[in-house]
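Quick one from the shared queue. A colleague (R.T.) flagged DUF4901 domain-containing protein as missing a structural entry in our internal table.

Convert sequence to structure tokens.
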Amino acid sequence: MNNIIEQLIPFLPSEAIARVSEYEEMTFDIIDEKTDEEIGSYSVNEHGELVSFSLFDETTQGDVVKDEIAAIADKFLNTFHPTKKEYELSAILDLDNPYMVVYEKRDETYGLFLHSMGFVVSVSSAGQVTQFHYTEEEYEIQNDDHVITKEEALKQYINQLDFALTIEHYDHEVYKNGDSLYHLSYSLIEHITDVPVDGSDPFSIREENKGECNIPLKDPPNKSVYELVGITSEYRLLNSLKEVGKKTEVWTKNKLLDSGSFEMDEPDNHVVKLKFDERTERLLGVISGEESENDGEEISLEDAKKNALDFMFKLFPDANERFRIEVLEEFDDVDEFEDDEMDHEFEDEFDLDDDFEDGFDIEDDDVDEEEYIEHEHTYTFYFHLYHQGIRVDQHVSTLDIGKFTGKITNFDLDIPAPELYTHLLTSPKISYDEAKEIYKNQLEMELVFTRDYDENEKAIYKLSYSPSFPATVGHVRAIDAMTGEAMFVDVGDATFL
């Protein structure tokens, strides 16, 4: 495959050679000639054509403007696929370095692009081609004798549309016209994504009720937060850390441990980590890495729920007003069965007593460093934040209760500062029907191809009407319940042809 690497040289940051990959067929590592370091890879198909290419280094910044990007991508395509003129430039997406340049086939009958099939070339703002991918597959276009009008499709789409009155954070990084404040909002609930051109019923993705339940009022327990977490006199404080208004404590009952990390992302073996707000002293998070045999008698779901509610009422005496509770469906039994099955298969394939001892030289230091212990199986509870009966969207606190000890093994409190949302009125000035009409006025139904696969894995393209928002570029996802402003998501600087 010397020809491919020779053709790639002008697009590489340094002189390089190709070596056959040890891990994948038809794939080659790109090796810097001076440093002998692997700087990228490429693969070819059975015809020797380049189908993928990638550089490993981080994308560098430069001053190449968007208008020049397509010419760089064109040069790359003309080098490796000069005969495939049926693919046209369909989009240039600014992904904040790199740009993604897309080439697709256009259907002659309707003049529409067949998405998800063709070339994608990523080009950095420094003018460097960083990635390339070519996808081609057998396909069929299904034409419909009866095609409904845009107006008919719009009516059908709107009839399937719902809004939920929520308190929503109009984060400017999400909403192009957002102010990064909290607002009373009609949040879009989209049950269908497109309308078939023949007017038949569209595929619905209507979700079932999430099962949130009101929480009955109860008195906070006469126990400390430490007791509720399971920290007793058997435990000792290994160390603590104060930073940026937070305090983290690391506890253990393991007599051999002398330190532990303060990272709350993952559990550390044999320790329980607690994070507090330093000013209010409220517990913000718990993560346990204690060992468990997961045997004995399990506590009931109701008992676990009682422990979870005791804990939340200890933190918030008005927890019944602040939250709704949801119980996660149980998957542990399935997981345990699959783990068991895998263990038996593994044991059948290898004689663990002989093969591993004879075939591997296991260092004691490696075992200590990578010690594996089993953690307790849990019941999981979600606490959805509410304000005066209105859900504060995207704020869900998670609480795990051990199935054998009843201890809190994981807790993550997710609530914004009260001053950000508690001042909001919860009676909308815009009615539900008005919000729907505002949304409708922003919307146009656009004729597109959707793709599915038949039993032979052949791609089937069908015509559908899909929602588009020409006035706002990004899709409208919410309507401000007080002002009626249509809030649309930021899809970046994209050019669609």
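The longest helix spans residues 332-349.
Residues 331-368 have pLDDT under 50 and may be disordered.
Added to the table.
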